[in-house]
Amino acid sequence: MAMGLIRLLSIAFTLVLLSILPLHLSLADEITSIESVPDLQKLMYVAVDGFPCVRLLNLSGEIGCSNPGINKVVAPIIKLKDVKDLVQPHTILVTADEMEDFFTRVSTDLSFASKIGGVLVESGSNFQQKLKGFSPDKRFPQAQFSPYENVEYKWNSAASSIMWRNYNFPVYLLSESGISAVHEILSKKKMKHGTYTSDVAEFNMVMETTKAGTHNSEACLQEGTCLPLGGYSVWSSLPPISVSSSNNRKPVVLTVASMDTASFFRDKSFGADSPISGLVALLGAVDALSRVDGISNLKKQLVFLVLTGETWGYLGSRRFLHELDLHSDAVAGLSNTSIETVLEIGSVGKGLSGGINTFFAHKTRVSSVTNMTLDALKIAQDSLASKNIKILSADTANPGIPPSSLMAFMRKNPQTSAVVLEDFDTNFVNKFYHSHLDDLCKKSHSLSFSSFRSKPHFALLIPFWCCIAANINSSSVVAAASVVARTLYILASDNKDTSNSALGSIHVNASFVEELLTCLLACEPGLSCNLVKDYISPTNTCPGNYAGVILGEPSSKPYLGYVGDVSRFLWNFLADKTSVQKGNTTSVCSKGVCSKTDEVCIKAESNKEGTCVVSTTRYVPAYSTRLKYNDGAWTILPQNSSDSMGMVDPVWTESNWDTLRVHVYTVQHSAYDNAVLVAGITVTTLAYIGILAAKSIITKALKQD
């Protein structure tokens, strides 16, 4: 009988061991060394890198994504192609080429949408190659600000409008490492077959506006659960303007570009063609003009303006024009009446075709000043005959200028004489407009950039050499910069002689343009490139060209901790390139402050001691003209009928949030847990009965003895 008891106990132990064996087996291949609880947590809960879609608000409601409540979302992962009839909410794994159809279905099929717990988006060069186009923006972006009536015109042929809708579930774009982590956990499904487990994603993407129930900009600003979209634009004059003297002010030739873009995912917004190619072309032109002798003797004043917040209601241009009306310190030295003409540089990264760089000049209206700008562009083209550059007038059948900052100028003053230079005629050639796919490369080489860092002569070649297929062409940007630089010189000097030696001496540094593209459009080297680090100490390596939110009280002399990396770099770069040094001497500014009012301190971040130079370079806060900051809080101003753009201003804000995280891990089914519980109870009961039986048998045996 004693042997029978031992056998019974052995069976009980075996049952318990078998109940937990699958979990042990699933971890056996992974465990190398667990020395603490955090080690175990990292093993069980894999953090997934990526880029979130966040909640944005306006006066009428919400767009974007968020957890539906105040708690984490945990849902089993399933690939979209495997979805049939979902019974419970799932995390859907969607590829980039499936995004448009998926989110369109979510918006039209409420039953399907109710079964979406969260979304993981898998993107990359392989999917990008499959797509003929993908733009989550509208057919006519920001049509409400158009200066003409035909707002049904289709500028953006790849439009889907999916970024302008409200999704009541979290959406997360996976990084390369994130894709690997998700695929690794899913690849073990076959090995875990029959182990009663599920692979789940856990989304911690709770928005403060959801917690507080503030579902529009007015409500969330009152409760302090959001902040206005915006940032800091930068303008600079060449040569510097003497603010103290208003006599003999020259007419201003204003050159404009934008620094911000948008996409479905907050921090994956490069905007390579739209608008960063135009920004780089402007900086290339400034660099070229800064080396021209006698620039201070020009008949007209050159002013360069780089705007932010343009994607969200033309915040930068509208605020700049408003500051001009106020004659504020942010625009000291400028006035509305002094601006003679405006030249905007739009998307210029896709101008190369058949060995010729072709750009289209879109004009605001017919006027002698506009014709003067068009003539200057043609003269600049002719002076660059060997460069295969062609400037064409946009199709007269177009309803007007394309979506651009000039729309704000035209709405403010319909008599504005201006031209915007683009790489398209009747509609965008950028098929990834306002998409996370509008980056530097469609397809890149797998070689590591870091392996060449010790070889300086590779510094400029590697990024483009690694691009097997580029979204934008650096030679197109160089060509645009060359045309713009010479056009500005012609306009400012009023000299139309193509044989002019000064005009022929203006050359854009192609290596500088290529380096700048990799600084602003790639994570390697990104903002850690030498060019940027020579001016500032960047807070991030990977550039983010999303406008962001404006922090603290707006000011023309803001606390630099509230100013984005790109804005700070632009301020320092433009101040340097447009500066003059009195008496060819330099003075040191150890605390970022210069003793003379016409001087600014540059490179104070990158060096222990900055340098004082004479320059007219200023920050201009970019935020809605419907907003006012007072006593540490934002309020919305009443509508003003005299401000036509303010009447249609959505007043965009972004919800506050803490930390946005996604984890993936494996869980056991509740049915399996219940089965283990029943088995455990059964084993315990049998063991108890066995013990009682054994005790009875042993007692009887002892009595007989």
Which short descriptors sum up this protein?
elongated, eight-stranded mixed β-sheet, Aminopeptidase, 705 residues, 33% helix, single chain, nine-stranded mixed β-sheet, 20 helices, alpha/beta
* Helix/strand/pairing category: alpha/beta
**CATH third-level topology of the largest domain:** Aminopeptidase
Described by strand count, sense and barrel closure, the largest sheet is: 9 strands, mixed
Computed over alpha carbons, the radius of gyration is 31 Å
Please give a structural write-up.
The chain folds into 3 domains: 38-153 and 160-215 and 660-668; 230-445 and 464-579 and 615-622, Aminopeptidase; 582-612, no CATH class. Helix content is 33%, strand content 21%. Helix 9 packs antiparallel against helix 16 (510-521). The chain has 20 helices and 29 strands. Strand 16 (352-353) and strand 17 form a beta hairpin. Strands 12, 13, 14, 15, 16, 17, 18, 19 and 25 form a 9-stranded mixed β-sheet that branches. An 8-stranded mixed β-sheet has the order 1-29-10-5-6-7-9-2. Strands 8-4-3-28-11 form a 5-stranded mixed β-sheet, covered by helices on one side. By secondary structure, the chain is of the alpha/beta class. It is a single-pass type I membrane protein. The chain crosses the membrane at residues 675-694. InterPro entries: Ncstrn_small, Nicastrin. One of its GO terms (cellular component) is plasma membrane.
